[in-house]
Write a structure and sequence with these properties.
The protein is of the alpha+beta class. It contains 6 helices and 26 strands. A hairpin with a 2-residue loop joins strand 7 and strand 8.
């Protein structure tokens, strides 16, 4: 193999693949008339990124991902990759770096399940950032570490860590059928790389995202139990509409005075909400905001950081809080409908 490529474009492709693959993974580099392809896989995951390049001699090699990524980050201009015996040399006008060649038997080829639909990449990434934020980071039950994707006429994203749940619905560019549970961390990183129109792929036990120049495919989790239908939402007796940014700012200030669990109380009155918290060693705080209120007075308590996460999902908008009695979930939605429909369920806490 002998190929020349822009260092910054090759670095972007190699770094994207390295972030998704295990730390000690190898990368397969393939050069042909179409350019340079960077690919890698393990039993559960496969990635592929394209890079513009001029192939002098077609060929394919496998090299360690980490040192290749670190080296390319520090290079500029054009870099020539050429096989020299048992090494892949990276050559510039005034420098040479050489990496060992690995066995080409490093895993199956990148699978490409059938494409079932398409979605706008920007809207998908924006909705996913919010939804994936509610997935558990480390849980013995894998279903709480994933994002469920369901498609028919729209795409629905759902995630939960059992204390909160976020559900986003956004339009599809073409109808399709899909129901999979995908690891949230992987899905978020893949969506961050995606540009333009994103293809949604599904096959037996696998899911994939594709976009011009990239493909990520992964094994899926069991999607059966993660559903907003499992959360009671028919007992709403109070609704509060308020500027999300103003309420979030008040939560930050008042939350400083909360106890170690950082629980604060949201007291709903006539045309206002009052935030209150107290901490034995630093004192107490309260702040009142004007709001539109319908229904009875109530005083649910929430963990401050969870309430803040929920409000940040509606930054720049007015948010409607639908409050249920007792320990039932509070439901947050945008007061004015947008292209992406977001619903955020937040469990109350017992006040001290």
């Amino acid at each position: 193999m002998d190929v020349t490529a822009p260092a910054h474009r090759l670095s972007a492709a190699v770094s994207a693949a390295s972030r998704l693959l295990p730390a000690r993974a190898g990368l397969r580099l393939r050069a042909d008339a179409a350019g340079l392809t960077v690919a890698g896989s393990d039993p559960d995951l496969a990635v592929r990124f394209d890079c513009p390049a001029t192939a002098h001699t077609d060929g394919s090699v496998t090299v360690p991902a980490a040192p290749l990524a670190e080296t390319l980050k520090m290079l500029d201009g054009l870099v020539r990759l050429v096989v020299e015996g048992s090494r892949l040399a990276l050559r510039l006008d005034n420098a040479r770096f050489a990496l060992p060649l690995l066995s080409t038997e490093s895993g199956p080829p990148v699978p490409e399940p059938p494409r079932v639909s398409e979605v706008d990449g920007g809207a998908f990434a924006s909705a996913l950032r919010i939804v994936a934020g509610t997935a558990s980071k480390d849980d013995p039950l894998p279903l709480f570490t994933g994002v469920r994707l369901q498609a028919d006429s729209r795409l629905t994203l759902t995630a939960s860590d059992r204390y909160r749940m976020a559900v986003a619905r956004l339009p599809l560019l073409s109808p399709g059928s899909l129901d999979v549970l995908v690891p949230a961390t992987l899905l978020t990183e893949a969506a961050r790389q995606a540009k333009g129109t994103v293809g949604l792929h599904a096959g037996p036990g696998r899911f994939g995202l594709s976009w011009p120049g990239g493909l990520v495919g992964t094994a899926v989790l069991d999607a059966g139990f993660l559903s907003e239908d499992s959360i009671p939402s028919s007992a709403v007796d109070t609704k509060v509409t308020v500027e999300a940014d103003a309420l979030a700012a008040a939560v930050r200030r008042v939350g400083v005075y909360a106890e170690d669990r950082r629980v604060l109380t949201l007291e709903v009155g006539d045309a206002q909400v009052r935030l209150a918290s107290a901490r034995q060693d630093t004192g107490e705080a309260e702040e009142t905001l004007k709001a539109e209120v319908s229904g009875g007075r109530t005083s649910p308590s929430f963990q401050a950081r969870y309430l803040l996460d929920a409000l940040q999902a509606f930054a720049g908008e007015r948010v409607e809080l639908s409050i249920q009695p007792g320990m039932r979930a509070c439901i947050l939605r945008a007061a004015e409908a947008g292209e992406v429909e977001l619903t955020y369920y937040l469990m109350p806490m017992l006040a001290r």
